[in-house]
Design brief:
Structural class: mainly alpha
Largest sheet: 3 strands, parallel
Order of helices and strands: EHEHHEHHHHEHEHHHHH
Radius of gyration: 21 Å
Bound molecules: adenosine-5'-triphosphate, L-tryptophanamide
Distance between the termini: 36 Å
């Protein structure tokens, strides 16, 4: 059976792009493949975090993933720092990666140019990501386009290690969502909806109230000709609304366009569809939020399942490298 691994950082507020572009896909995939999903709190440490906020967001993100539909009986949902093998294999991956190849990572170049404090961890981050993936012998890694280069690096590291020390790791491949799953900012529909946007006016947050969702969609940027059709280059704003409406109702954006002659009704229906998608998720989230001990219990079950496999892979790597066994 295909094995899938993916991770999401517990930083910033989850938005509709994360839900449609990643989480909903993970929920589907858990039924098709043996899936592991990880709240990557160690990755969040690459940028200084407020401790209380980090603890809160890690728990909240796990609750959101459960609320969207990850089922701990079907998949393995866990927190990265609960499985210490991630940090250990990350060291081995840092010693497998070349300084030059890490220097070529475009995400590091972007983030380090913007950051006030550039930690060494921000630089070696892709080695930790490679460890995440390789520990579980993942075949597929569902990610956004921005992570393509990191998964390529993971493949190179696995191949290099295998060539030097003998077959140890499975070489994974990245998988990407359909283009309709890319949600754009409602105020600037040529940029993707992102938690790091300057203002939240164009971002629908998972926990936004229905009124706020309606308001944000009503104010979404469109254009002057009132023609409703899917044409990303000529009509980015309208196309984004059609993608959102389509994704929420299980249709292509082209099909979602049928029957609309004006922007008003399209916006009302898009808002209604988003609210219909998010309301039950919000309700389940509120229930989970009221019982943090239950979430911690579910995460411990996930960590136990993950640890078993991670320990076996790390033992293989240690042995291949010639690290002396503990007597
Ligand atoms: P930022 O843009 O601030 O770096 P982000 O909102 O892109 O953060 P990530 O934590 O990088 O969030 O991404 C989590 C997952 O959500 C990834 O799989 C990513 O591809 C997906 N994702 C993020 N934004 C969008 C979007 N606008 N449309 C579709 N998928 C998205
Ligand atoms: N770097 C990713 C998050 C991430 C990840 C992973 C994704 C960390 N480890 C392993 C897939 C597989 C991001 O910032 N979106």
């Amino acid at each position: 059976m295909t094995r899938v691994f993916s991770g999401i950082q517990p930083t910033g507020d989850v938005h509709l792009g994360n839900v449609l572009g990643a989480m909903v896909r993970w929920v589907d995939e858990q039924h098709r493949a043996e899936s592991l999903y990880c709240v990557v709190d160690l990755h969040a440490l690459t940028i200084p975090q407020d401790p209380a906020e980090l603890r809160r967001s890690s728990l909240r993100l796990a609750q959101i993933l459960l609320a969207v539909g990850l089922d701990p009986e079907i998949c393995t949902l866990f927190v990265q720092s609960h499985v210490h093998e991630h940090a250990e294999l990350a060291w081995i991956m840092q010693c497998t990666a070349a300084h030059g190849e890490l220097s070529r990572m475009t995400q590091f170049k972007d983030k380090s140019a913007r950051a006030g404090f550039v930690s060494a961890g921000l630089f070696t981050y892709p080695a930790l990501m490679a460890a995440d993936i390789l520990l579980y012998d993942a075949d597929e890694v569902p990610v956004g386009d921005d992570q393509r280069q990191h998964v390529e690096l993971t493949r190179d590291l696995a191949e290099r290690f295998n060539a030097r020390y003998g077959a140890t790791f499975t070489v994974p491949r990245a998988t990407f969502p359909a283009s309709g799953a890319r949600v754009m900012d409602l105020q600037d529909p040529t940029s993707k909806m992102s938690k790091s946007a300057a203002s939240t006016a164009g971002t629908i947050l998972l926990l936004d109230e229905p009124k706020a969702i309606e308001k944000k969609i009503k104010r979404a940027v469109t254009d002057n000709d009132a023609d409703v059709r899917f044409d990303v280059a000529a009509k980015p704003g309208v196309s984004n609304l059609l993608s959102i409406l389509g994704a929420c109702t299980g249709r292509s954006p082209e099909d979602a366009a049928a029957g609309y002659e004006q922007y008003g009704p399209l916006k009302s229906d898009a808002a209604a569809a988003v609210i219909e998608l998010l309301e039950p998720i919000q309700a389940r989230f509120r229930e989970l939020e009221a019982d943090p001990a239950e979430t911690l219990r579910l995460l411990a079950i996930g960590a136990n399942k993950a640890s078993e496999r991670a320990a076996a892979t790390l033992a293989r790597a240690r042995d291949a490298l010639g690290l002396l066994e503990r007597g």
